[in-house]
């Protein structure tokens, strides 16, 4: 699938966020990806035309790379949820979207939830896929991971980034979302794409 034009918006703190828009449907759909993203690589992935093309067939699809990832600026430290939600709002402003449905995938889910809760006038609907309210278990959130399991995962990510992170093969990792296998070709290509999407600190 041909990559749509990539544009940039500068946030209040001077960070440049890469975004793209495709389709001309009757409502805006903001797709917030999970874990790591790279707009150009997304559209090179097998199934991209079927997955993103389908969403763009009934909406104006808006996508962006989160700060620290893909084509956006990489400040050197992971963003807070508040910064991520502000970045999403800046993208909506840049494309002239007064209101959008938000589709949050995996790690993009908490940010999507915060965006919707903080800006009810800007978010017309919220759809979540493969995500969570928080990752780590808490007294009021027993569904989360035990802290020691989460810390082990982070250690594995830092050690093995660019390879089979935490024992997950890239071709089995559904980083784009439902219906999109990020790389069906081979494991080596998947590792290469992970390195291009982000650095371990992200």
Written description of the protein model:
The structure is a single chain. With 202 residues, the protein is of the alpha/beta class. The chain has a single domain (7-195), classed as Alpha/Beta hydrolase fold, catalytic domain (Rossmann fold), CATH 3.40.50. Helix content is 33%, strand content 17%. The chain contains 6 helices and 6 strands. The chain has helices spanning 39-44, 48-58, 81-94, 108-118, 147-160, 187-197; strands at residues 7-10, 16-22, 28-32, 60-64, 100-105, 123-129. A 6-stranded mixed sheet has the order 1-2-4-3-5-6, with helices on both faces. Helix 4 (108-118) links the parallel strand 5 (100-105) and strand 6 (123-129). Helix 3 packs across helix 4. The chain is globular, with a radius of gyration of 16 Å. It starts with 6 loop residues before the first strand and ends in a 5-residue tail after the last helix. The relative contact order is 0.17. Mean pLDDT is 83; it is low at 166-176 and 180-189.
- Helical stretch tally: 6
Query: Which range does the strand content fall in?
Result: 15-25%
Q: Number of folding domains?
A: 1
- Overall structural class, as computed from helix and strand content, comes to alpha/beta
Overall shape: globular
Order of helices and strands: EEEHHEHEHEHH
The main sheet comes to:
6 strands, mixed
- DSSP summary, beta strand count: 6
Q: Taking all residues together, what is the mean pLDDT? A: 83
Looking at the structure, the CATH topology is: Rossmann fold
Please, what is the CATH homologous superfamily?
Alpha/Beta hydrolase fold, catalytic domain
Contiguous low-pLDDT stretches (5 residues minimum) are: 166-176, 180-189
* CATH top level label: Alpha Beta
Radius of gyration: 16 Å
Helical content class: 25-40%
- Distance linking N and C termini: 27 Å
Order of strands side by side in the largest beta sheet? 1-2-4-3-5-6
């Amino acid at each position: 699938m041909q990559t749509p034009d990539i544009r940039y918006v500068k946030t209040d703190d001077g960070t440049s966020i890469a975004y793209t828009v495709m389709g001309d449907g009757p409502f805006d759909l903001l797709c917030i990806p999970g874990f790591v993203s790279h707009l150009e690589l997304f559209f090179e992935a097998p199934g991209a035309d079927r997955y993103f093309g389908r969403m763009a067939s009934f909406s104006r699809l808006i996508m962006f790379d989160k700060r620290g990832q893909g084509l956006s600026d990489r400040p050197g430290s992971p963003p807070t949820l508040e910064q991520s939600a502000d970045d999403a709002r800046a993208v909506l402003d840049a494309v002239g979207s007064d209101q959008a449905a938000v589709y949050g995938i995996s790690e993009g889910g908490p940010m999507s939830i915060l965006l919707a809760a903080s800006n009810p006038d800007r978010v017309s609907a919220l759809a979540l896929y493969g995500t969570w309210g928080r990752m780590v278990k808490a007294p009021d959130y027993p569904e989360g991971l035990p802290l020691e399991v989460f810390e082990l995962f982070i250690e594995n990510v830092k050690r093995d980034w660019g390879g089979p992170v935490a024992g997950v093969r890239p071709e089995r990792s559904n980083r784009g979302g439902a219906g999109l296998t990020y790389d069906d070709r081979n494991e080596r290509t998947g590792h290469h794409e992970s390195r291009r999407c982000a650095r371990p600190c992200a």
